[in-house]
Amino acid sequence: MPEPDLVTQALARNLKRLRTERGHTLDALAARSGVSRGMVVQIEQARTNPSVGTVVRLADALGVSIARLLDYDETSQVRIIPADEAVRLWNGPDGGSGVLLSGIEAPGPLELWTWHLRPGETHASDPHPAGTVEIARIDEGELTLVLDGRAHRIPAGSTASYEAGTAHSYRNEGAVDCRLTLVVSVPPPGK
């Protein structure tokens, strides 16, 4: 994993650059994202480590992937991300994790994640922009996906696809660890 300070600095630099490129004031980005102006300022000054939800809302408001917001090396045509440089964005209370493996803009943000949920852990996700689709491949254990208040059990070896424009959560209600690979496809802005 990259040093947390490296990720914080990259987020600060990229957020400010992307906000400026799109002509958004601090107030405008705060309004578009639902993230307070004060929090945007703290992030741009690298004074805070925001939650996954905050980073998702900012990326969605800017029309970019989370990976682009966190990218600390945009110099190569072929981007190879070693396992130890993937960005951990969620830590569960019992040792679970959500790790952003990679992401691109094609034509909207496309992200590849690996998630590890320990028994009893839950991660709640805010709604993504309308038209966002997720594909979850359960590698180990069983995932309980809650979408629109309805629970769906997805066993190991299965793949589920769903629209993620509403609140949803990932739960491990089993006795063994749950590991999954997740693809998130966000439509380009204005679509």
TrEMBL record:
Gene3D superfamilies: Jelly Rolls, lambda repressor-like DNA-binding domains. It comes from Kitasatospora cheerisanensis KCTC 2395. SUPFAM superfamilies: lambda repressor-like DNA-binding domains, RmlC-like cupins. InterPro entries: Cro/C1-type_HTH, Cupin_2, Lambda_DNA-bd_dom_sf, RmlC-like_jellyroll, RmlC_Cupin_sf, TransReg_Diox_bact_type. Residues 15-69 form the HTH cro/C1-type domain. This is Transcriptional regulator. One of its GO terms (cellular component) is cytosol. It comes from the Bacteria. Keywords: DNA-binding. The keyword Iron-sulfur does not apply. One of its GO terms (molecular function) is DNA-binding transcription factor activity.
